[in-house]
Design a protein that fits this description.
single chain; binds adenosine-5'-diphosphate; alpha/beta
Length: 397
């Protein structure tokens, strides 16, 4: 079956058409500047060059139409007609406590997703617009919702409750939800397979280190703790997000800078992390170049990132009373050889050590710890689109 995977943002739409039997992408692309002038679509049939076309898209429905035109186009298309699309899988950021797994998107379910908007006001409304646009243009094609939060619904109360008055959980559902669940699930399962083991017998710590970054403790196949919280702002130092800070800093800065608490949170989301610390960039390739040239802030940002990540690994080893496998994934986890080495320098006490030669490999599945190490370290490239396609195909079947 051919599954169309859609990840809708407020002004963008990412897509992949995946053959779910061969587990291969047929085409992928990105619509940008939806609802703003100067829009464009970049479409790539796999194995061929990508083509970028300028196209104003007043809304997401227009973007869905243009995407479908490209997929069925005589020269750059990969299918003869829309009838070949068996189902659509939508990435949905927040499923609250309602969704502990992927679901078929019926009208009832869509209404329940809408009720989670409060918890992810930047993401969920955009995801819903994508869902409703597809429903309008492709009525009758089954659609599934795959939630970033679902995998973490197995966390015990002691892990997801904050030390706040319990009534805030009861009345407003203030708790840890966690994100990147599709990725943590996918790579922890792959890591177990790579090692010829059953995930149910392992304690795994997954480090998803991309622009957004989170760590997850996966015990016997289930998420038992994760570093992102009510929103994706908590946890590690990220590209532009602060991660954990003393909550009192928010009002302190608001007073000192004469700005609102919302503005401080916006700074924590968009101008902090390694971008804020280094003053150079949110991208580690730029930070590494600056650090190599002796930029002190860039060096310090790199060190802070490694240190914070290693502290979380230690915390999750404690939470699970041990760890068998540490997995690195996403842009930095898959490619940043130096960062993996820096993090692993903190982990000797756990019984692991990095194999310098194997650690030079990038973007592929590889064991990077020394032979015989008590704790195995692996790199597993994430593939959230394939995971969404798999789950969608399973639901439709
Ligand atoms: P997102 O969360 O937006 O999907 P990514 O997973 O692409 O982000 O991660 C972005 C980070 O990964 C950047 O800091 C970048 O430096 C790093 N990165 C991505 N690809 C590479 C690469 N090929 N080589 C080195 N670093 C990379």
């Amino acid at each position: 079956m051919k599954i169309l995977v859609i990840n809708c943002g407020s002004s963008s739409l990412k897509y992949q058409l995946i053959d779910s039997v061969k587990e291969e992408a047929l085409a992928k692309g990105l619509c940008e500047r939806i609802g703003i002038s100067g829009g464009s679509i970049t479409h790539q049939p796999m194995g061929k060059d990508k083509v970028t076309t300028q196209a104003d898209m007043p809304d997401h429905t227009a973007a869905v139409k243009i995407m479908l035109e490209k997929l069925t186009d005589a020269s750059v298309g990969v299918i003869a007609s829309l009838e070949e699309i068996g189902a659509v899988g939508h990435r949905v950021v927040h499923g609250g406590e309602k969704f502990a797994g992927s679901v078929l998107l019926t009208d009832e379910v869509i209404a329940a997703v809408e009720e989670c908007n409060d918890l992810a006001p930047l993401h969920n409304p955009a995801n819903l617009i994508g869902i409703n646009s597809c429903k309008e243009i492709m009525p009758g094609v089954p659609m599934a919702g795959v939630f970033d939060t679902a995998f973490h619904q197995t966390m015990p109360e002691k892990a997801y409750l904050y030390g706040l008055p319990y009534e805030y959980y009861k009345t407003h559902k203030v708790r840890r939800y966690g994100f990147h669940g599709t990725s943590h699930d996918f790579v922890s399962e792959r890591a177990a397979k790579m090692l010829g083991k059953d995930r149910k017998d392992l304690k795994i710590i997954v480090c998803h280190l991309g622009n957004g970054a989170s760590i997850c403790a996966v015990k016997n196949g289930e998420s038992v703790d994760t570093s992102m919280g009510l929103t994706p702002l908590e946890g590690l130092i990220m590209g532009t997000r602060s991660g954990d800070i003393d909550p009192a800093i928010v009002t302190f800065i608001a007073q000192k800078e004469n700005i609102s608490a919302e503005e401080v949170i916006n700074i924590c989301n968009k101008k902090s992390g390694v971008f804020g610390l280094s003053g150079v960039s949110s991208d580690f390739r730029d930070i590494a170049a600056a650090a190599d040239a002796g930029n002190r802030q860039a060096i310090m940002a790199t060190e802070a990132y490694a240190y914070k990540t290693a502290k979380y690994i230690g915390a999750y080893a404690a939470a699970m009373n041990g760890v068998d496998v540490i997995v690195f994934t996403a842009g930095i986890g898959e490619n940043n050889v130096q960062m993996r080495a820096m993090i692993s320098e903190y982990l000797g006490y756990l019984g692991t050590s990095i194999h310098a030669e194997r650690n030079k490999l990038r973007g592929e599945e590889v064991i990077i710890s020394d032979d015989g190490a008590k704790v195995v370290m692996v790199v597993v490239p994430t593939n959230e689109e394939l995971a969404i396609a798999r789950q969608t195909a399973a639901l439709v079947r």
